[in-house]
Every structure is written in structure tokens, then in C-alpha cells.
Design a protein that fits this description.
With 461 residues, this protein is an alpha+beta fold. The chain is built from 16 helices and 16 strands. Helix 1 (3-11) packs antiparallel against helix 3, helix 8 packs antiparallel against helix 11 (290-301) and helix 8 (228-241) runs antiparallel to helix 14 (347-361). The structure holds (2S)-2-hydroxypentanedioic acid and zinc ion.
Length: 461
């Protein structure tokens, strides 16, 4: 054990510290597969005091710190590739102090998202932020990346559900931010600085999370569409007529890869170029047949070719599976991934422009589209052609990246809609933020992390 680590152990004798290769490999990586993890070691604190002790030690020994939650990030925000100390919050996973009147609950950073969803359900309430990785992602990471997911259209991003935030800054101070108050107009709301800061200002160690009343039973309507422009026409029609909790989109290529796994039968007899999945209040439960009338109207207009409305919660889950299993269906193709957003009304034009650009420059690359199109959020995946060597593919994808971000800039969009900036996109931050803004962010980082030990190299160029 190195002298600094021995010193850490001496200062915090109860702190769980792992230096074995398996732990360093396992905790030094998130879902991005571009980096070789090489942390100094992994610390697993059980208390805020241990987190503060780690920060004070890191300042003294000038060791960088990388926060580690569920490590489900896709931008390299939790990657430790240069001798950092990984600080895992998996041992800080208590939920408690439920306040039924305020509808809030205190959670430590290591609470798994699904555990909070289950806790809320057990109290007859609902925690609505949801995404495919909720079974392993942790609240600290969700807050640090302001995670979005599939229900943003009705419930917003994680930011909306944080009533209070406990953070340990890069100076080792513990800040209790907002303390769960519904109203608190007392100057800058640092809570919102830390939400989405990707561990670059300090550690999220706990949060007072808001819960809400559960929605009525939801149904899923899966529609087959002939053209991209219809995706937005259908969105406008249904958004006016019913209460949507999700409006997802995927291309037929995406569906093709899902079906190729052989676990799901095709949803319709005839394939279509695009599909949208709507989650809405179940007409069978509400007795409101507006959704069916809107479907018929879209059918008459030729904006929809076919559709299926779930008749049970089980069938709703089966219909969601078409969308939720896309990511794992294409993983074997080591895809180039990107996560961007443009103004909702410009989504079809953006997709058409990028498709044309990629087809012209990389005719043998297969482009897979899916995403939370109701928020203007697109997930772009380009699959590696089987015959192309991975290194050559990754080189080509550097150019693809440049072209994607150039188009995002032209469309006035965001270079990262929900996956954050992390390590992967750090150098492209100027696509969406001005030089002045970046300079101000660096100034703010200096206040909370004067020694630059908090997740250095992430988010900020
Ligand atoms: C999604 C998750 C992972 C991916 O499916 O909505 O945010 O493949 C993504 O991009
Ligand atoms: Zn997503």
C-alpha cells in the first residue's frame, strides 16, 4: 500500500479501502467502453464524516477523486484512468425520515433508483424518474448527472425531484442545501449548481427526494408510421388530446435488431419505417376514448399505418420491451453512441440531415435512431460493420462525431441531452456553451474545488 494510502487508512481506520486489481477494474469504469481503468484504489465510505476525511486527505496528498455510483454513465463521467481514488457510495444506501405531509424522504447517495421507486410505492406514492438502468443506477449519480429517462415529458428531469441536497465540497465542507423546503428565496440556490455538475464541484452524499401521487393505470399505444414528419404530427395530435407520460421513437432498423434476438415477435404484420410508443392514462380504466378517436384520426390522415393499444399491464410491458431492449440489442456491434437534443419541431429535419450526411460519407455504416423524441432527445447509434476493424471504425467515428456536433451546433441544439458531458464529450462542450460561460463554470469550480481534485478532466475542458 502506498504511503498516502497508508496515511488515509491511519486517519480513517474504519474506512473500507480496496487496492486489489479486480476492485480497481470494476469500480474504475462506467458503461463507456473506451477507457482502460487505472485508479489508485477504491474507498467505500459508510458515513459523511468518512467522505469529508477522504477529501481532506486528497487535498493534503493532491490525489484526484472520482465519485462512483451505479457506474451506468455513458459519457465516461465515472471513469478513473489516471491514478485517482474512486469513492464508491454503495455502502451509503439508507432511506428514511419519510415525511407523509411533505411527501419527501431522505436518501443517502448510494440508494439504487429502483429501491426508491419501490419505497415510494410501499408508501402509496410514486417516484417518477425512470430509465432502463434504474435497477443499478444510484441517486447520487442520478443527481450528479441530472438523469432524465422515459417520463420527462410529464415529470421532468431528476432536478425537479430534489427538495434538499447534502454535498461535501472539494474543500471538505458539508453543505445542507435547501433542506427540503418548498419555498426558500435566500440567494443563489447551490442545490441547482450541484445537480448536473458530474462530481466536479463535490460529492452528493444525500438528498431529500420529493415523491408524488401515483398516476392512474397507464396503457401503451405502439404506432407504426410511414414518415419522419408524421412522428411530430402524431405527437401534436396526441399531446393536445390526452395526458402523455412518454413519447418514445425508434426506427425500423432498431426494431430489426430487437427482433433478431428472437425474444419478441414483430408487433405488426407489416414493418414500417418508424414507430412511436406512447404511454398514457389507460382508456379502459378512465373510460375516456379520446386516444382511440385520435388514433382513428391519424389513421384517416395517413400519418399512422397501424397501431396496438395494450389491454393489460403485462401487454404494456411487452410493448415497452420493443423500445427498452434496443440498447442491449445493438451492443454487440460496439456502436458509436451519441445523445443530443434539438428543438422538438426540428427533430425530423435534424434526423434527415444527419442521415443524408452519414449515407454520403459512410454508406456501409448502419445508423440506428431511437430516443425520447417528446423531449427532442435523440440517441444516435452507428454500428460497426462486421468486416471493419474496431480501431478503423473508431477512427472513422471521430469524423462522425465532428459531423454530428457540427449539425447540432447548426440546429442550435444540445451536445448532451441526458447522458452528461463526462470525459467523452468534454472537448465538445463549446458546441453548446460559449467561451464566457465555460470560463464562468471554471470560476465556479474554483470556489467549490480550489485544488481541482474533484473529478478532474470531466465536463470542463
Ligand atoms: C435510452 C440508454 C442507453 C443508450 O435507451 O434511453 O438513454 O443506449 C438511453 O443510449
Ligand atoms: Zn435515453
Amino acid at each position: 500500500m502506498s504511503a498516502p494510502l497508508a496515511r488515509l487508512h491511519q486517519q480513517l481506520p474504519q474506512l473500507v479501502l480496496r487496492t486489489d486489481d479486480d476492485s480497481r477494474q470494476h469500480y474504475g469504469l462506467d458503461w463507456t467502453r473506451y477507457y482502460q481503468p487505472a485508479p489508485l484504489a477504491v474507498a467505500l465510505p459508510a458515513t459523511v464524516a468518512e467522505v469529508q476525511g477522504i477529501v481532506r486527505w486528497a487535498r493534503e496528498h493532491r490525489v484526484a477523486l472520482v465519485p462512483s455510483g451505479g457506474r451506468t454513465g455513458l459519457s465516461g463521467g465515472a471513469v478513473a484512468a489516471s491514478g485517482e481514488l474512486v469513492v464508491s457510495f454503495e455502502r451509503m444506501n439508507r432511506i428514511g425520515d419519510f415525511d407523509r405531509v411533505a411527501r419527501t424522504v431522505q436518501c443517502e447517495a448510494g440508494v439504487v433508483t429502483a429501491a426508491l421507486q419501490q419505497y415510494a410505492s410501499g408508501k402509496g406514492l410514486y417516484y417518477p424518474v425512470d430509465f432502463a438502468s434504474s435497477g443499478s443506477s444510484q441517486l447520487g449519480g442520478n443527481i450528479a448527472t441530472n438523469a432524465g429517462g422515459i417520463k420527462v415529458i410529464r415529470y421532468g428531469m431528476t432536478r425537479e425531484w430534489v427538495a434538499g441536497l447534502s454535498v461535501v465540497t472539494g474543500t471538505g465542507e458539508l453543505l445542507e442545501l435547501n433542506r427540503g423546503l418548498a419555498k426558500n428565496n435566500t440567494g443563489y440556490d447551490f442545490r441547482h449548481l450541484f445537480i448536473g455538475s458530474e462530481g466536479t464541484l463535490g460529492f452528493v452524499v444525500g438528498a431529500c427526494m420529493k415523491l408524488t401521487l401515483p398516476p392512474p393505470p397507464q396503457a401503451v399505444l405502439l404506432l407504426a408510421l410511414p414518415a419522419l414528419a408524421d412522428v411530430m404530427r402524431v405527437f401534436e395530435v396526441f399531446r393536445e388530446g390526452v395526458s402523455l407520460s412518454a413519447y418514445e421513437f425508434f426506427s425500423d432498423q432498431a426494431l430489426g435488431h430487437v427482433l433478431a434476438r428472437g425474444q419478441l415477435a414483430a408487433p405488426f404484420e407489416v414493418r414500417a419505417p418508424f414507430y412511436v410508443l406512447l404511454e398514457l392514462d389507460d382508456p379502459m380504466h378512465s373510460g375516456d376514448d379520446s386516444a382511440l378517436k385520435l388514433f382513428e384520426r391519424c389513421l384517416e390522415q395517413g400519418w399512422v399505418l397501424d397501431g396496438v393499444l395494450s389491454q393489460s399491464a403485462q401487454q404494456a410491458q411487452q410493448l415497452w420491451a420493443y423500445r427498452e431492449s434496443i440498447s442491449e440489442s445493438i451492443t454487440p456491434y460496439t456502436p458509436y453512441k451519441n445523445d443530443i437534443a434539438v428543438t422538438i419541431s426540428r427533430v425530423p429535419a435534424f434526423i434527415a440531415s444527419l442521415d443524408a450526411l452519414l449515407a454520403a460519407n459512410y454508406p456501409d455504416f448502419e445508423v440506428i435512431w431511437y430516443g425520447h423524441i417528446g423531449d427532442g432527445n435523440l440517441h444516435i447509434n452507428v454500428l460497426k460493420p462486421p468486416a471493419l476493424a474496431l480501431a478503423a471504425f473508431r477512427d472513422a467515428c471521430e469524423q462522425v462525431n465532428e459531423q454530428v456536433f457540427a449539425l447540432v451546433r447548426d440546429f442550435g441544439g444540445s451536445m448532451s441531452a441526458e447522458h452528461g458531458v463526462g470525459l467523452l464529450k468534454r472537448d465538445y462542450l463549446p458546441v453548446s456553451r460559449s467561451a464566457q460561460e465555460i470560463e464562468m463554470m471554471q470560476g465556479i469550480k474554483k470556489v467549490f474545488d480550489p485544488d481541482g481534485i474533484m473529478n478532474p478532466g470531466k465536463l470542463l475542458p
